[in-house]
Design brief:
By secondary structure, this protein is α/β, with parallel strands linked by helices. Helices cover 39% and strands 21% of the residues. It is built from six helices and six strands. The protein has helices at residues 2-25, 37-40, 68-86, 95-104, 132-143, 193-204, and strands at 44-47, 53-55, 91-93, 147-158, 164-174, 180-190. Strands 1, 2, 3, 4, 5 and 6 form a six-stranded mixed β-sheet that branches. Helix 3 packs parallel to helix 6 (193-204) and helix 4 (95-104) crosses helix 5 (132-143). The longest helix has 24 residues, at 2-25. The relative contact order is 0.18.
């Protein structure tokens, strides 16, 4: 009897451990963190273009995001409109200024659309690494100050509601020290890619009353 009770107790413990391990393996979705506009008020922040935009195949939005160049341009336009309208206390340097500066000195500055900023979508990155850090430092310094707002990736995935969800990963970095000082993933569901993105931007740039 004691042996059976002991075996049952061990089995119960093993089941509990397995259940806890399974729960621990489920990623926790962190709520979007608003851009720290108060801390950035009066500062010059350079906004980089989006270089990675990917729809989940099952979502069926591929045709709405083609050609890719036009989709990237539309995403950049919505992001630029959102930051300038909802955070006017920040002095924004927009992607077109970066592109123009890079074109004027192609041997000195990297193309802002081809810098590899998409690697920053990995939450494990807490610091900029070369050569990306050097590229960002040169172009940001030539057009603004030391702060760079970088949209690392924009993906569209299926949502349990049956719609499509935009997930925009954004980071704020000090290009002189290389430190990433803020990171967030803006998420929202919409009827189409641009409705979803616009709603997602409201989660990190809430419209103040």
């Amino acid at each position: 009897m004691a042996g059976r009770i002991g075996a049952a107790a061990v089995l119960a413990v093993l089941i509990l451990v397995e259940a806890c391990s399974s729960r621990a393996a489920v990623p926790v979705e962190v709520a979007p963190q608003p851009i720290p506009t108060m801390a950035l008020a009066g500062r010059t922040v350079t906004l980089y273009p989006i270089s990675l935009i990917v729809p989940e195949r099952e979502l069926g939005w591929d045709s709405l995001l083609s050609p890719r160049a036009l989709a990237l341009a539309q995403a950049d336009s919505l992001l630029a409109k959102a930051v300038t309208e909802r955070a006017p206390e920040i002095v924004w340097v927009l992607p077109e200024v970066l592109r123009r500066t890079a074109r004027q000195a192609p041997g000195m500055f990297a193309n802002p659309d081809q810098m590899g900023t998409a690697v920053l979508r990995n939450p494990g990155f807490t610091k900029l690494l070369d050569p990306l850090r050097s590229q960002l430092r040169l172009l940001t310094g030539a057009t603004g100050d030391r702060l760079a707002m970088i949209p690392a990736s924009l993906v569209f995935v299926s949502d349990t509601s049956g719609g499509g969800r935009a997930e925009l990963t954004m980071v704020l970095a000090d290009v002189r020290t290389g430190a990433i000082t803020w990171r967030s993933v803006a998420r929202a569901v919409g009827d189409d890619p641009w409705d979803a993105l616009d709603r997602a931007l409201e989660t990190i740039l809430p419209i103040m009353p």
